[in-house]
Amino acid sequence: MSSDVPDGQDVTAPAANVERVRVEDEMEQSYIDYAMSVIAGRALPDVRDGLKPVHRRILYAMHEMGVSSGSSHRKSSSVVGETMGDYHPHGDKAIYDTLVKMAQTFSMREPLVDGQGNFGSMDGDPAAAMRYTEARMSPIAEELLVDIEKDTVDFQSNYDDRLQEPAVLPAAFPNLLVNGSTGIAVGMSTKIPPHNLREVIDATIHLIDNPDCEVEDLIHTDGSPGPIEGPDFPTGANIVGRNDIHKAYKTGRGRLTVRAEYEVDEEDGRIVITELPFQENKARMVERIAENVNEGQIEGISDLRDESDRDGVRIVVDLKRGANADVVENQLLEHHLESTFGVINLALVDGQPRVLTLKETLQEYVDHRKEVVRRRSEYELAEAEDRAHILEGRLTAVENAEDVVDLIQNSEDRDAAKATLREAYDFSTEQAAHIVRMQLGSLTSMEAAEIETEYEEVQARIERLNEILGDESELFAVIKEELREIQAEYGDERRTGIVADDGEVTHEDLIPREDCLVVITEEDYIKRMSVEEFEPQGRGGKGIIGVDPKEGDRVHEVFRAHSHDYLLCFTNQGTVYRIKTYQVPELSRTARGNHIRNVVTGIDDDEEITAVVGTGEFSPDRCLTMVTRQGYVKRTCTTEFENINASGIIATSLEEGDELADVEVTDGEQDLVIATRKGMTIRFDETEARQMGRTARGVGAIKLQEGDGVVGLVATDDSDERSLLTVTENGYGKRTKLSEYSRQSRYGKGLIDIKTGGRNGPVTDVKAVADDDHLVVMSAAGQIMRIRAGDISTVGRNTMGVTVMGLDEGDTVASATVVPNPNAGE
Fold first, then answer.
1. In this structure, what is the dihedral angle of CA atoms 358, 362, 364, 370, given to the nearest 10 degrees?
2. Longest dimension (CA), the chain
């Protein structure tokens, strides 16, 4: 077994030099060193060129390799290898991932790499392996490196001191704002959104011309048409509201709401999404929408397709027949089509991380560009002066061509010729060397004229460069001119729109506030319609089609409800479910409806909805009063029904064979009027039925004759001037003042309300109506009629009544509901 200890070394000897340090101090300093290394060397962009070291090194490596926009593409693995081997020894995956992102048109507003091959997609698909893809610099990327060979920026040693690399690129445009940046360092992060090149350059020029301007002068507001509208994402979409944009520009931090671009096509019943928020994974978004639809969290969608191609995004959301497009749209917005972009405008300034305002960011770039143009001008001035010096010597040589030729010809060697020329014409060493190397052909008169012309051009160039270096306004003029050239060459229109922020809009806000009719058939099909679809008709008419049930099905109930109320749906088995009225699909008059299990998801196959109560709030002062077919009544506080899960809750316990017949909301100070199929009614104080819990059965309300059953419940009081409207199966009915129904004790036989023998048939429904109210009556076959309650005669108890609705042979009245007259009181 070999040993790592050198021969002859005593491993037990004490160390020659031991330095004692506190562990806490060492850990603190080491962590700080590590944090600063990550901050400055990896995670944060430089405010001057907008690049992190890895981006800068990739571009510089491509520059050194000659992989420009005009060259052929080079294998990505070659670029990655050169970058890793010479400048960035952090692993090929990190370098390739950066290269890929720089080539993605959906990640960079102005891509810096022109990729060839599979560089990933908006669906989150990864790029192909680097051996399969090819890359070269994009034309605009070359603008970041332009004039780098003219001593415009500082260079530093690479990781192993073999080579030199730029500490920053010259950056002929404000890349930090144009392409943005994202990074996570130790204890801090940056997230700078991309912007439109034209707008950023306009803002830069405005700042140069107006150095004392405020941030407000650089951004577009209602009172100031500043050059920058806001971030401009490569994927388009829309930013909601300007206030958050302005806050981010003024403070360096903010949260932007980004909304997808889509179109609601109500005619074809679909929503087409064409642009997604920045950095949204398209495939994952489509998957999440599908999951929400399957789980019932989003209703009204029948199909979902991703029809996107190379030309752009196209996601088609097909709506169910009768679905409310506004509701579906808002559900998609709430959960999927809006995202938040948290702006943190953090960048390195002189090697230190700083959160910058918009003006500070642009000012740092202007200062950088000023330094670049100054250093470039000094470099070009030195070159021009050197060239002028050489040309002066050439002109002298041309003027004395014969003597110069003789001197050179008579010299022993080149060095002697140079010395003779310096002595004879006071040439400098450089001039003498150049003249000795001149060809005889350059001494012709034509060559002499060209030298003279070039000399004049060089002198003009020297004069211009001195002007730039001596006058700051001229230097800024150069910067502005170059920025405008880039703007003209690469600028394009905005992709991201700015839409008004109308505050938080819930899907309820998009639902019209109106009275609705909810229709339920015996086979559990349900739909809603606006009451306004049905004009009042005269008494005795047949009405119009209100629903077209399938063969063998019949209308079971019709209820009135407000579109924004909660609907408490009570079933014959004593269970209650809760939905919003607008969740019931709104369909045309002739539509059959949707099956109730698609609306009330928890309802069992053998349950039928027998009562629906619309309530806007749940109060401890109000009760839900329930009556069963067999004559039991009970009251339960509405607050016990505030939290109803999807599978429903027990509303009341029932005897075997009994069913829940009707439900009313009462306040504890009313009388209850209960009606039966055989025309009997009973009225008693509701307090005779004490409040009970949900699982209680209740107490006896009325003694029923054999074969009789309760059909309805009405709540009233002594001041109530309304009438009790009774409607029978054969379409007859009457109104009787509620005051004619005297109060009795609970659980009596009651009084005769209407004669049910002969033409009338049994009672179908009872309602409390005022003269101005409208009555909506629906037949089992689907005919519906709206009449004025005042058109029905007011008579005493124990009478036959009059024709309310004309029925076809075999048809019967299924249900009735009351609609307040919208014109009452005018």
1. -170
2. 150
Give me the pLDDT at residue 826, please: 43
- Inter-residue contact 711 to 793 (CB < 8 Å): no
Which tokens go with 612? Answer: 């629906």
Q: Which two tokens stand for residue 675?
A: 């009606």
Alpha helices in 438-584 (DSSP H): 445-470, 472-490
Whole-number pLDDT of residue 510: 56
Q: Residues 283-307: what's their mean pLDDT? A: 90
Q: Which residue has the tokens 């119009």?
A: 544
pLDDT (mean) for 328-353? 91
Give the contacts of 383 (CB within 8 A, at least 6 positions apart).
Answer: none
Shared fold status for 51-170 and 258-344:
no
Beta-ladder partners of 571? 609
Q: What share of the chain is helix, strand, coil (3-state, %, to 5)?
A: 35, 25, 40
Whether 525 shows a pLDDT value over 50: the answer reads yes
Cα dihedral 71/77/78/82 (nearest 10): 120
DSSP secondary structure letter of residue 703: P
**The one catalytic residue among 31, 34, 132, 159:** 132
Domain ranges of the chain: 51-170, 258-344, 511-533+540-819
Strand duo 515-521 + 763-769: pairing? unpaired
User: CB under 8 Å to 442, separation ≥6 — which residues?
Assistant: 394, 398, 451
The amino acid present at 667, given as its one-letter code, is D
Query: How many angstroms separate the CA atoms of 218 and 224, rounded?
Result: 9
CB atoms under 10 Å from CB of 503, counted, come to 7
Residues 707-730: tens digit of each pLDDT:
999 999 999 998 888 999 999 999
CB–CB of 603/551 below 8 Å?
no
How far apart are alpha carbons 730 and 763 in whole angstroms? 9
CATH of domain 511-533+540-819: 2.120.10.90
Please confirm, yes or no, whether 132 is among the known catalytic residues: yes
Q: Which two tokens stand for residue 306?
A: 């991703």
Q: What is the pTM of this model?
A: 0.65
**Whole-angstrom distance between the N-terminal and C-terminal Cα of the chain?**
109
Check if CATH label 3.40.50.1820 holds for domain 51-170.
no
Domain 258-344 has CATH 3.60.15.10: no
